[in-house]
Amino acid sequence: MNNIATASWLRRIRVLNDFFRATFLGVRVVVSTGVAALPLDVKAHVLIEVQRFADFDAGNDPHNEHDFGSFELAGETFFWKIDYYDVLCQSGSEDPADPEKTTRVLTIMLAQEH
Fold it and tell me: What secondary structure, in 3-state letters, does 27-76 show?
């Protein structure tokens, strides 16, 4: 892949990740046991923080895919991560830039569970 194709491919992945994370449409959202055990109002705020997350930098987004973030809320540190699987979720996606070939799974967890 040349640099232009690579940049275009990464941009497509980033746009898809931002859309799915912001809307939760077309993505499977999984929460860890620790997040599931939180009070309902805290869980709601956690989901909103994930959807609004925009603090990407070289430290948390080295590949510029917008597929990971962390934030503080209610005295806890939370991580979220988007992983790319094939349509049946049996192996990795052959092309994360193609939503027809990719199931995105967004996992939200307490940092201490990582």
Answer: EEEEECHHHHCCCHHHHHHHHHHHHHCCCCCCCCCCCCCCCEEEEEECCE
Question: CA 52, 55, 61: angle at the middle one, nearest 5?
Answer: 115
Distance CA 70, CA 61 (A): 11
From CA 50, how far away is CA 69, in angstroms rounded?
A: 8
Instruction: Give yes or no for residue 1 having a pLDDT over 60.
Output: no
- Check residue 80 and give its pLDDT: 98
CA–CA distance, 104 with 63 (Å, rounded to integer): 17
| Residues 19-45 pLDDT 10s | 999 999 989 999 999 999 999 999 999
- The structural domains of the chain, with segments of one domain joined by +, span 3-113
pLDDT in tens, 50-59: 999 999 999 9
Distances, alpha carbon 56 to alpha carbons 64, 67, 82, 111, in Å: 8, 9, 14, 17
Tokens of 97: 């830039």
